[in-house]
Amino acid sequence: MTISTRTLATGAALLLILGFGPAAAAPPQTSAERGVRQALIRLNGFLARRDMAVVDEFAKGDETLLVGSAPDDKARGRAELEAHFARYFAMPQTISFSWREVRVSVRGPVAWLYAEGEVVLRGDEGETRQPYRLTGVFELQGGRWKWRQFHGSSPAA
């Protein structure tokens, strides 16, 4: 079967018109990837400082979801996110992450990441590290990447 250049061009144009191509308002791939990685770094800083401004890193709306590694570790929407982080910040240890692998993909104003590394718990008795995996979905809002979904897990041994 032979495919002409004209057929390929028509197909590419249809993909762009139907919205399957990159969005015109989306930042360049490298800039977008950098923005998502910066959101991951900001999250770590807010967690280490026990700063409730971490909630502002998440997109507004009831469909925003955080699912952690504990069985009851789930929050949907701003009020539940605030309660979630208040509980974590009341713990005797601080929480942060140390990532050894981070992969980011971007499609227009939506991005997703996969990160693998360790969750780090620091307290008066020292530091504990446990394997941790994270997937996240981000939405570009006002020029900044916001978490739309955070899903963390501790891999089974």
Give a quick summary of the entry.
The protein is an alpha+beta fold and 157 residues long. The protein has helices spanning 5-17, 29-49, 77-89, and strands at 65-67, 74-76, 94-107, 110-123, 126-141, 144-153.
Describe the structure.
- It is a single chain.
- With 157 residues, this protein is α+β, with helices and mostly antiparallel strands.
- The chain has one domain (27-153): Nuclear Transport Factor 2, Chain: A (Roll), CATH 3.10.450.50.
- It has helices at 5-17, 29-49, 77-89, and strands at residues 65-67, 74-76, 94-107, 110-123, 126-141, 144-153.
- The chain has a 6-stranded mixed β-sheet with strand order 2-1-6-5-4-3.
- The longest helix has 21 residues, at 29-49.
- The chain is globular.
- The N and C termini lie far apart (50 Å).
- Keywords: Signal.
- InterPro entries: NTF2-like_dom_sf, SnoaL-like.
- Residues 36-156 form the SnoaL-like domain.
For the record, the CATH class is: Alpha Beta
- State the end-to-end CA separation: 50 Å
Instruction: Give the strand tally.
Output: 6
Could you say how many structural domains there are in total?
A: 1
Structural class: alpha+beta
Using only CA atoms, what is the Rg?
A: 19 Å
The H-and-E topology, N to C, reads as HHEEHEEEE
Sheet bearing the most strands, described? 6 strands, mixed
pLDDT average, as an integer? 86
The residue fraction in helices comes out at 25-40%
Task: Provide the β-strand percentage band.
Answer: 35-45%
Number of helices: 3
What form results from the Cα inertia axes? globular
Which CATH-level-2 architecture? Roll
The CATH topology comes to Nuclear Transport Factor 2, Chain: A
Spatially, the strands of the biggest sheet line up as 2-1-6-5-4-3
Low-confidence stretches: 7-24
